[in-house]
Amino acid sequence: MSFRVVIVGGSVAGLALANMLEKFNIDYVVLEAYPDIAPQVGASIGLLPNGLRILDQLGCYDAYRAKAEDQVYQHAYLREPTGKAYGYQHDLMAMWEKMLGYPMIFIDRQMLIQVLYSNLNHRERVLTSKRVISVDILEASAQVTTKDGQVFSGDIVVGADGIHSTVRKEMWRHAPPGYFPHDEYSRVPASTLCIFGISHRPDAYPGASQHNTLSEGHSYFVMAAPGNRVYWFLFMELKETLYGENIPRYTKDDEAEIVKQHFDDYILDNMTFKDLYDKRIVTTLAPLQTYVFEKWHYKRLVTIGDSAHKVDPVTGQGGNGAIESGALLVNALLRKLDTSPNGLNEKQVEEVFAEIHTGRFNRAQDVVQQGYWLQNAFTQRSTMGKLIAQYFMPALGSYGVLYRGVEFCSPATSLSRLETPRRPRAVPFEDELPAKPVKSLNQLSKLASIAITMCLCALGADLLHLPKRLDLAIDALCSMKISTASLLPVITFVVKIASLLAMALVESNRVGNKLTSWVLIAIFAIVNNFLGPGALGPLAALFAHWSCGLIVGRHVPVEAARMILPIVIIGYILPATIAISRMDSTSIMIWKNAPIICFMLARSLLPLSNPSGSHIADDEKLKLDIERERTRNMFTKADLPYIRLVHYSAFLMSAATQLINVYHHGSLISLILAGKNARLALLGFSRYDDLAFTLSSLMLALGAAPLSLRLRGYITTSQSFASALLICLGLPIVGPTATIAGMAIYRESVLAGFGQ
């Protein structure tokens, strides 16, 4: 028995689904309302790695990419209302490709439709001028009736017919009261108005570039297009949010009136909106409706793409989401047909449709929220939006776009039964990882680490006391084995903090911690002054546990990685040596604040350094070139030798001091060595510092390697347990600091190992 799918709408969602069904010899028919399958309506479309990977599986990627001609790799700029650039996203498209294997490519929507249509072997199944007017649900099938009176039957009907979906309306008509929310379309909001278009490229427009020009109340997004053209959007905040049927259909007269008001707006510092609009080829004025419908299916009817979830074009995820939905449908359908090859009953069909909803609903809601966030920032609708647009976005640069992109694209589905062509990438998609990520435990892990850190900080700062019997037992052990005037605990402490500091400098200079590092410095300074140095160990463990453990944020600028060991030697070990030898208040104060000075020194020197090491950046153009080179270096792994030198140095030095302590005092006492040491007490350290640090190290080592890597799917459960066992065994043998260093070596090898 042949399974048949009736697809309503020759959209991106509809034709992509047709291509997928054809790959598995599932019968289909596509019904398109308009006489032309690929009309030119002035719309561009951007596909990101999550959509392009599926196109690659379908054999469409190379044809899609070829349509972009020489406009695949573009530089991106943020611009003020005057057109002046104030933020740069260097080599953005190339970075997308290096990160996830595919760039972000914009072409005409018409071109994508043509690519999908041309890739079909059975183009005769795509019928135009077939406007659907009704859908009926029968016992074992569904029937679609078109305006010209033709009837098409199938096992399921898929609505890929947009925000004004006829299939959705028919589902609502057939369903009993209460199955769908009452009058749900009245909830669909529009808070942004948009003129989008395609123009011939103005003379002032630079090639292979895209520009976000942000102003209060409106913004422009303009990008180079193939054929010496330009795609552009003018986003405008509506005075009030409109809903459902109250959202008007706009006319060309409305467009002309709006355009006049913006003619003098600067997009570039030497190009106005009038320059762009005067060279227009086609334009459209439309309200941007954004909404995720609560339910997407009823019996044998289902909606996908814009019919189920309409997103803001500013996110670039509309077409990608439509393609993902089709892949989810086909994956679920094939699994169900394996168990029931002679056809699916209504219950089985609904189980297939429920899988689509489960796989897409939260992701679709995330995209809608992302659209609100971006429009709030781009059109500066609030004080927070202005702060984000003016300070946060330029500070994040290319990494901010990549981080958010990877975070969203990597969990995307693909066609599970089609091979994915191999394309080099630094970050795997989630279905390519060694294990399935366990995202539900991420927040719980963070909350637990905060609670533990607060207790350990209080213990290290002598604000929390152990039970009296345990306290006396520790004192007895320490007094039996350790001289209160011994230098060994002091030397051990210096090596321990120096090693930890070196590793912390690695973490603070990762591109994934670009914005948070200054915040961490401030917190460390406050804690050091108010709670004392004993609280720094647990706090460092928390921040290291939370630090960027993502592949996308792993890189450390080479010039920063080179400086770490010299900074620690000069900035910490030298002041510590002076303080221990002199024991005067000034030297001790300098030593206690040395970690903060080292952090500030590392962050302050970085903007002045050239990756080649040849000279100092002293002008704006040179700084821009240096930043661009740093961005490109993110994928070279040239930082790894320096990071490994730091980690191995920390491991060897810490392990050596620990073994000396084990030899003199035994493994147990070496973990709580400070005890009542007189020198450490004079230097301002608590009697519980070593105990707090040991427990912090255990938390960090277990949290940052076995737990964190497993939750993200970077290692398997068995690997996680094996590394946890090694950590527990290593703690009494090589000591807490060397255990952390060993964890860091292991984590670095895992993160850097992907993409090889």
Automatic annotation (TrEMBL):
Membrane spanning residue stretches: 487-506, 518-543, 563-582, 642-663, 691-709, 721-746
Signal peptide feature range: 1-18
Record flagged with keyword Transit peptide: no
Keywords: FAD, Flavoprotein, Membrane, Monooxygenase, Oxidoreductase, Signal, Transmembrane, Transmembrane helix
Family: Belongs to the paxM FAD-dependent monooxygenase family.
One GO MF term attached to the UniProt entry: FAD binding
The name this protein goes by in its record: FAD-binding domain-containing protein
Cofactor(s) named in the record: FAD
Ranges for domain FAD-binding: 4-338
Top-rank lineage group of the source organism: Eukaryota
Pfam families in alphabetical order: FAD_binding_3
InterPro entries recorded: FAD-bd, FAD/NAD-bd_sf, FAD_mOase_fung
tRNA processing keyword on record: no
